[in-house]
Every structure is written in structure tokens, then in C-alpha cells.
Amino acid sequence: MKDNSQVTNGAGPVMIEAAGLCKYYGRFKAVENLSFAVHQGEVVAFLGPNGAGKSTTMKLLTGYLAPSGGAARICGHDVTESRLAVAHRLGYLPENGPLYLEMTPMALLRFFADARGMSPARRHERIDYVVTICALGEVLQKPIGKLSRGYRQRVGMANALLHDPDVLIMDEPTAGLDPNQILEVRKTIRSLGKTILLSTHILQEVREVADRVLLINEGQQVFYGPSSTLKNEPSLDGWFHQQTLSSK
Q1: What is the pLDDT of residues 13-55, one digit of tens each?
Q2: How many beta carbons lie within 10 A of that of residue 81, not counting itself?
Q3: Contact by Cβ (8 Å): 4, 58
Q4: Which homologous superfamily does the CATH classification assign to the domain defined by 6-247?
């Protein structure tokens, strides 16, 4: 299959792109004129106060919502025009993503592998990989409904990784987890070697896992640049604390 990704200025292919992206609900502007690009292998943290438009943007990028204006592209494929091509290249972990609670992790992974048309050999290979990288070995045969939130999050991540996507979009992947679980999820994210856009409200998470940071407020882009800026620019650090932490 032809790779339609753009290449810009030697920075590598653009894997995630928003171009003038907008989403309106009547007169309410959930997202307005949002433009950014994430290059191959980058981890970008997506930050902003509650209600800033982060989840809406992620749903636009993954095709769960249709934009009111502009375009969203994954690996060069327009999300609204090339849904199957995007689904092949993209893994999505929504916040509190739905899981079949009566299933075991192994049964769920086999179900989705079959749904994606994997051969038996490929299914075995990919399940072994995601079980290892998401540390699910101890709970493979336990009902998902009996698992802790941390393990459920790992199951969701394993499912998002199952088809070996080039791009991962994750909405609050450490929300509600205890400190040990947070460290494990961050470790997993750093080990994947994928192009990743993840939303978070935890400043420490940005500093530990992200190459760049995208800040939005009231649906509009405030800043997009290196995560090191959060260490070097007190004003930006202060803006984040005022806007995000005060909203919790």
C-alpha cells in the first residue's frame, strides 16, 4: 500500500496532522482552527484545562467525530475520506475505553485479532508481543470485569497495539491509576517506539514521556513546541498550573 505521509524539511514523515480543524455545536466552538503536525517517532503531550477541547480533538483525529471545518490526517490519509486506511495505521485508547467485561484478556485479544482478519500465525505473534509489553501474563485468563483499573488500562493498550499501528492516540492513559500503575504505563509508552499523541493534565507526565507539548484552551491552540520549554519558560509553566490544576 502506498504511503501518503508528507515529509517536511527533513524532519521525517508527518504521521498526525490537523489542518485548520474545527468542531462546532451550534454557536459553541469546541475546537477552532487547530493546526499542528506530529512527525514519525515523536511523543506529543496534549494539554489543557478540563473542557479545553482535548477529547473532541482526539475524536476528530480518529474519525469518531466529523469535523465542521478543516481536515484531520493520519499518515497522510484524510480521516473522513479514507477510514479503512486510517484504521489500519492507527491505534486508539480512549479514556475509560469500553471493554467486554465478561471476557478474559486472552479471549478479547483473540476476538479482535480475528475481527481484523489476522492469520493464526500472525495472531499468535501479535498477542504474545502485546501481552509481554503490557505485562498481562498474570491475568490473561481472568474476567476483565474482575481486574483492577490498572490492568484494564493495560488490556485497552494491548488491544490498541494489537494490529501493530504506526500511530497511537491515547486519551488520559494514566487517569485514575495509582502511582505504581502510572509509572508502569509511562514505562510502556516510552518503550513502544511509536508516533504518539496523548492527552494528560499531569505536568510531570509531560516531562517524563513527551518530546513536544501542545497546549489548547477554549478550543484554540495556545502553544506547540518542545517539552523542554516547560522547564525553561516559567511563564508557560505558570500558565499550565493556573489553567489546568485549578480546574481539577
Answers
A1: 999 999 999 999 999 999 999 999 999 999 999 988 888 899 9
A2: 10
A3: no
A4: P-loop containing nucleotide triphosphate hydrolases (3.40.50.300)
**Cα 106 from chain centroid?**
23
Q: What b/e string do you get for 202-232 counting C-beta neighbours within 10 Å, with b at 16 or more?
A: bbebbebbbbbbbbbbebebbbbeebeebee
Pairing of strands 220-226, 212-217: antiparallel
In eight-state DSSP terms, residue 138 is G
Closest C-alpha to 112, from 75, 247, 104, 77: 104
Give, in degrees to the nearest 5, the angle at Cα 218 between 216 and 223. 20
Residue 113, classified by CB atoms within 10 Å of its CB into exposed (0-12), middle (13-18) or buried (19+), is: buried
pTM: predicted TM-score of the whole model, two decimal places: 0.84
Contacts for 58 with CB less than 8 Å, ≥ 6 apart: 46, 92, 94, 169, 171, 197, 199
Helices (H), 2-144: 54-62, 83-89, 105-115, 120-133
- Domains of the chain, by residue range, sit at 6-247
Whether pLDDT at 235 is above 70: no
Dist CA 54 CA 77 (whole Å) = 21
